[in-house]
């Protein structure tokens, strides 16, 4: 029986009522925080800030995090021993990191356009990318200033900023693989007068890893349970899952399942370029269409979905161009089916009168039917990935996709043997999980914890991720 729980529209509140629903869209997250932090000594910086901007390129998520209590459960003598963070090794339940406050700053439309234009190769892209690298650092700094003002804090109260940056290219499968996140950490450190830990992905890639996903180590520290398997599904532009098996004989896994919100957003913007939203609010438009099983089968036949983990992908692969190629191929099949629809053609092909081939059943697509099919693509690729590893488990949902009711309802239909809930019900806001993870990665850097998991990324060994940039 699926356990459905509801989160209040107010990001700082939590409930445990009987429905998993929210009308808040991934691109309209309000600024919010918990009660202001008590002012620490000016000589003792206390907090970390995690900064995340995902592949949806909707804006900047900031998390202000206190690791003081969490720190007591880390065995610094054995930094590789993640089991020191699990509940079974202690007499009491370890405290999760405390989210003191959060802040969201939407990107202006012109900035979002600059970011998304860099997802695929174009002319003069080096000038465009590195000018935007500095421009984003200024936007990040402005957002951090607003967070500090909101919480009545100053730069001297912050130990460090964990800066993921903005991914514009992720190419883990080239002969010389690379990943590129912009939002210059050195500029950010200088502007804020706060030390920045950044460039988290590059060391993992230097060790032959995918450089992604990086959050499973944080998920392990927070969500692992001794009595049941756990999955964390993060639905951003690209969807990814973390698998935390309860059996010590199984490895933790984490990988990108495929498109999350990205293709749905791209298709919506293609058809409604002047709409005040750049996304299908709540999945309402998709809900007016009907998923097409033949198009879904065609999309799901892509080789990426057949790859075993470790694997990762990005919007440079699951792009609007990828979708258009599939729609063009589908349309060609529709035209071919029209040619086969007359009785003479059926007899020539050995069909009896009244029989239809699968090809002949294909019909032209309405644009809202495409959107409904993209909902199913995201849900089916996530569900298939989960079923490959466990037949029953607890599943935590997070990321912007949790605000899409049509998508959540489809996930519920496809995962009937699983217990679905939101990360809010484990004390972590669905919109802030990844920002908190990068605060944790900065904390792990300072404490010399091994923050990568080779079973997840495919790296040759664990490592402490990140590079420090000083004001």
Give a quick set of tags describing it.
single chain; 471 residues; Nucleotidyltransferase, domain 5; five-stranded mixed sheet; 16 helices; globular
Say which CATH homologous superfamily is assigned. ATPase, nucleotide binding domain
End-to-end C-alpha gap: 53 Å
Give the amount of beta strand, in percent: 15-25%
Helix and strand succession? EEEHEHHEEHEHHEEEHHHHHHHEHEHHE
CATH topology: Nucleotidyltransferase, domain 5
Task: Name the average pLDDT.
Answer: 86
From the 3D coordinates, which CATH architecture would you assign? 2-Layer Sandwich
The major β-sheet equals: 8 strands, mixed
Morphology: globular
By secondary-structure content and strand pairing, the structural class works out as alpha/beta
The number of distinct structural domains comes to 1
- Classified by CATH, the class is Alpha Beta
Overview of this protein structure:
The chain has 471 residues and is an alpha/beta fold. The protein has a single domain, classed as 2-Layer Sandwich (Nucleotidyltransferase, domain 5). It has 16 helices and 13 strands. Strands 1, 2, 3, 4, 5, 6, 7 and 13 form an eight-stranded mixed sheet that branches. A five-stranded mixed sheet has the order 10-9-8-11-12, sandwiched between helices. Helix 14 links the parallel strand 11 and strand 12. The chain starts with 31 loop residues before the first strand and ends with a strand.
């Amino acid at each position: 029986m699926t356990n459905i729980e509801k989160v209040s529209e107010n990001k700082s509140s939590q409930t445990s009522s009987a429905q998993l629903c929210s009308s808040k869209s991934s691109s309209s997250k309000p600024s919010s925080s918990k009660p202001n932090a008590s002012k620490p000594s000016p000589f003792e910086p206390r907090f970390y800030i995690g900064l995340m901007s995902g592949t949806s390129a909707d804006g900047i998520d900031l998390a202000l995090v206190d690791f003081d209590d969490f720190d007591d459960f880390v065995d610094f003598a054995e930094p590789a021993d993640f089991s020191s963070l699990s509940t079974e090794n202690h007499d009491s339940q370890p405290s999760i990191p405390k989210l003191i406050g959060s802040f969201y700053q939407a990107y202006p439309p012109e900035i979002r356009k600059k970011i998304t234009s860099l997802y695929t190769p174009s002319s003069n892209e080096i000038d465009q990318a590195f000018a935007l690298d500095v421009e984003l650092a200024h936007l990040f700094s402005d957002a951090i200033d607003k967070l500090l003002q909101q919480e009545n804090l100053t730069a001297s109260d912050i130990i460090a900023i964990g800066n993921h940056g903005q991914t514009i290219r992720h190419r883990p499968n080239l002969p010389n693989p690379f990943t590129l996140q912009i939002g210059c950490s050195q500029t950010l450190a200088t502007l804020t007068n706060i030390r920045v830990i950044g460039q988290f992905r590059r060391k993992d890639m230097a060790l032959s890893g995918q450089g992604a996903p990086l959050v499973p180590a944080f998920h392990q520290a927070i969500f692992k349970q001794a009595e049941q398997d756990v999955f964390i599904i993060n639905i951003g532009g690209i969807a990814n899952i973390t698998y935390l098996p309860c059996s010590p004989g199984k490895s933790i896994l984490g990988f990108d399942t495929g498109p999350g919100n990205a293709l749905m957003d791209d298709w919506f913007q293609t058809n409604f370029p002047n709409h005040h939203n750049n996304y299908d609010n709540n999945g309402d438009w998709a809900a007016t269409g009907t998923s097409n099983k033949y198009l879904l089968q065609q999309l799901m036949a892509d080789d990426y979905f057949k790859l075993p983990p470790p694997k990762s992908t990005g919007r440079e692969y699951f792009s609007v161009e990828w979708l258009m190629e599939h729609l063009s191929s589908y349309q060609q099949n529709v035209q071919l089916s029209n040619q086969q629809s007359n009785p003479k053609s059926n007899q020539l092909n050995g069909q009896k009168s009244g029989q239809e081939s699968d090809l002949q059943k294909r019909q032209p697509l309405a644009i809202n039917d495409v959107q409904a099919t993209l909902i199913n693509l995201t849900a089916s690729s996530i569900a298939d990935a989960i079923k490959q590893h466990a037949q029953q488990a607890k599943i935590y949902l997070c990321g912007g996709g949790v605000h899409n009711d049509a998508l959540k309802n489809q996930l519920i239909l496809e995962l009937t043997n699983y217990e679905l809930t939101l990360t809010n019900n484990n004390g972590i806001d669905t919109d802030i999980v990844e920002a908190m993870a990068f605060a944790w990665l900065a904390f792990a850097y300072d404490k010399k914890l091994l923050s990568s998991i080779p079973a997840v990324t495919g790296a040759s060994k664990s490592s402490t991720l990140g590079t420090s940039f000083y004001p």
